[in-house]
Design a protein that fits this description.
The protein is α/β, with parallel strands linked by helices. It has four domains: 203 residues, P-loop containing nucleotide triphosphate hydrolases (Rossmann fold, 3-Layer(aba) Sandwich), CATH 3.40.50.300; 154 residues, P-loop containing nucleotide triphosphate hydrolases (Rossmann fold, 3-Layer(aba) Sandwich); 59 residues, no CATH class; 110 residues, Alpha-Beta Plaits, CATH 3.30.70. It is built from 21 helices and 21 strands. Strands 3-4-2-5-6-1-7 form a seven-stranded parallel beta sheet, with helices on both faces. It has a seven-stranded parallel beta sheet with strand order 10-11-9-12-13-8-14, sandwiched between helices. A four-stranded antiparallel beta sheet has the order 16-17-15-20, with helices on one face. The longest helix has 20 residues. The radius of gyration is 26 Å and the shape is elongated. The structure holds adenosine monophosphate. The site of adenosine monophosphate has 15 residues, from α3.
Length: 572
Amino acid sequence: MSQFKDLGLNPRILQALEEMGFEKPTPIQEKTIPFLIGSEKDVIALAQTGTGKTAAFSLPIIQKIDESDTNTQCLVLCPTRELAIQIEKDINNFTKYSPGIKSLAVFGGEMIDKQIRSMRDKPQIVVGTPGRVNDLIRRRVLKVESIKWLILDEADEMLNMGFKEEIDETIINMPEQKQVLLFSATMNRSVRRIADNYMKKPHDIAVENQEQGSKNIEHFYYMVHEKDRYQALRRIADMNPDIHGIIFCRTKRETQQVADKLMQDNYSAEAIHGDISQEQRTLVMNRFRDKKTQLLVATDVAARGIDVNGLTHIINYNLPESVETYVHRSGRTGRAHNTGISLVIVNMREQYRIKALERQIGQTFEKGMIPTGEQICERQLFNLIDNVCQIEINEKQINKYLELINKKFENMEREELIKKFVSVEFNRFLEHYQNASDLNTSSPQEREQPRKSSMLFSRFSINVGRNAGINVKDLLQFLNSQPELRSVEIGNITISDSSTVFEIDDRYKNQIMEIFKNIQMNGLNIEIICEASGIESSRDFYRKESRPPRRGGFSPRRNGGGGGGGRPPRRR
Ligand code: AMP
């Protein structure tokens, strides 16, 4: 993979990128940046949000813009206010060391007078939603005569939202001589029509696979009875205590109902949909972005333009109507160089649609098993214990109470004390799941075959997780590369911020303990705990990888084993 400096960008841009923590270009950037620096041809790029497309189109334009010319030279059209703000913010960061370049975001829902005043600052780059941009053009505040670059970002979304006429009107007013760049996650007839009408012999840029963003995404489906959909959602959330994700529903009503139920059941969840005011929406989004809310329940329309990095899960509470919508939904995770999980809850009648989706997006869906009550209780118990081990003690505050606390506990044995503390949190799960039934349903073909998972597993927990850069693929490749584990079955893998839990064929318990005792990750000794053995897996097995083994971020211990390195600080 190349570096940004190999793409022909100037030192001022490189300096800004370095400060933003952009180390290496994403695939779409690798292809688009050198092309646009060297060519004035129009470009169609298939890319969804999260692939790094903003930098892909804006960096070469920033490099080529004439800083001495204060007319508007570049117009970016995008579907939502949030996206316009985000793109402009990125451009502002990219131009930190290019003081001659100014940019402005314009969008509906904010007083036009304020934006008219800001236009007096003479931004060379204007980013906006089609309606507001047209309004400013009609008022002659935004002059398009000097436009050299027009970018249509998320073109499919703009057309889905009914902006076709506004886009037509904007383009008709522009000079013939300009470079048009069209970015779209999907290519349908109406996007193609825009390209045919307004672009000249466009150069196509695709990154390996049309669904480039989803290469970092694992797709799962869970099959349940219709009546169990909500309970299945709860179990998925309970099995992933560090979840930070979006739950997509089909209607505003369903969105609100699911969010209300989750809140009543003590989950950290909020809703966004069309009936929520802009002000409220901003508050909800800020809480979600700051991880104060773990689950955002949303309609597709309300979630447009949501730009939150590091989401762990996208949950399709229902299958969306179209493949395009699924691609957009799942593209909210696995952004930039991260990995993510997109999962769908289906009933038996919908299962055939999974096969169709697999064909259309060119990715396979793995069948996930809704965890049993017992599995969830174990997961929560060990998560609680992990949290206790990692919590930082505020010695100053606690010391003054210690004497009294010790007195209250003086007649209690250590074991009883531990049990009582753990029960404060854990009883909630025990009570809820004490008579929980199996929610999984199976297709007639599956019922004829005995389930593979009658075999038994051990479950392990290690003290490194997402924060240390672990992902499912690297862990699988690492396990598969171990000679002692050749052909071993691997069960469920759950990666949270600072720990990873995985299941392995019970018979390999000792080998696993040995292997992990002797390795490090990013210089940190790995501590492994066997949480349970002789258990059933909560999912079907990971497919054996045929790729050449790679060690991921794992390396042999430099200090020859033993000795516990500290745990990484927990991000909370
Ligand atoms: P975008 O697809 O442009 O919305 O980018 C998605 C996210 O990835 C944004 O938060 C960017 O700041 C970030 N990003 C884009 N390119 C890179 C890169 N080369 N390295 C690291 N982060 C990036």
